[in-house]
Amino acid sequence: MITVIDYKTGGNLFSVCNSLEAIGADIVISSNPEQIEQAEKIIFPGVGSFEKAMQEIKSLGLDHAIKKSIARKTKFLGICVGMQVLFECGHEGTISKGLEIIPGQIEKFDEKICPKIPHMGWNTVKGNASPLFKDISPEEHFYFVHSFAAKVPNELENINKKFPKSNIYSTEYFEKFISHFWDGENLFACQFHPEKSGEAGLKLLKNFINL
């Protein structure tokens, strides 16, 4: 059973659920902290503003539930803003505290370097060893739409200190950023949208289900 977190902002919740159902997953959508704490596997989809997402997460009491689930080694996948809020803070509007699970900051692409923001469209994801990419070609493309990201090499040393077994995948859009994170155990996160990434995205979600 996959518990999909609903933090009441709409967005990509239903497209994620439709993709999960298409590959035969049993899902439940929940905003209940107790249910999330006891879930078998969790997917946390998110879109939009880091600050708004954190406001809703805290108002629903989901911040503590997410932290407890990850700490008890529940398999967890954050998608897009669902990945970003796992970091320490975001620089969208006012600087907002995140869930402070992964060291680092979410920053806007540099307008002096990137001629077009947001980064929107298909791009590759470079790395190795994450079980979510099992049987997926390293040349495969995934779909992105975002203006903020965890940039490389910012905070990589701190991430590796906290998660010595971690695997970090990167993507380049004029600047290099973290596009996939795996702590080496139970915590996974994708900046791209697997639910919008065709067969490769469905395969990644299926790999998560089969963990």
Give your account of this protein's structure.
The protein is an alpha/beta fold and 211 residues long. The protein has one domain (2-209): Class I glutamine amidotransferase (GATase) domain (Rossmann fold, 3-Layer(aba) Sandwich), CATH 3.40.50.880. The protein contains 7 helices and 13 strands. It has helices at 13-22, 33-37, 50-59, 62-71, 81-84, 156-162, 198-209; strands at 2-5, 27-30, 41-46, 75-80, 87-90, 96-97, 102-108, 119-124, 141-146, 148-149, 167-173, 175-182, 187-190. The chain has a 7-stranded mixed sheet with strand order 2-1-3-4-13-12-11. Strands 6-5-7-10 form a 4-stranded mixed sheet. The longest helix has 12 residues, at 198-209. It is globular. It starts with a strand and ends with a helix.
Comma- or semicolon-separated keywords:
single chain; about 210 residues; alpha/beta; Rossmann fold; 7 helices; globular
In short:
It contains seven helices and 13 strands. It is α/β, with parallel strands linked by helices. It is globular and about 45 Å long.
By secondary-structure content and strand pairing, the structural class works out as alpha/beta
CATH topological fold name: Rossmann fold
Annotated CATH homologous superfamily: Class I glutamine amidotransferase (GATase) domain
Average pLDDT: 95
Quickly count the helices: 7
DSSP strand content: 25-35%
Quaternary form? single chain
- CATH class reads Alpha Beta
Overall geometry comes to: globular
The main β sheet shows up as: 7 strands, mixed
How much helicity do the residues have? 25-40%
CATH-defined architecture:
3-Layer(aba) Sandwich
- Strands of the widest sheet, in order across it, are 2-1-3-4-13-12-11
Question: Radius of gyration over alpha carbons?
Answer: 16 Å
Report the strand count.
13
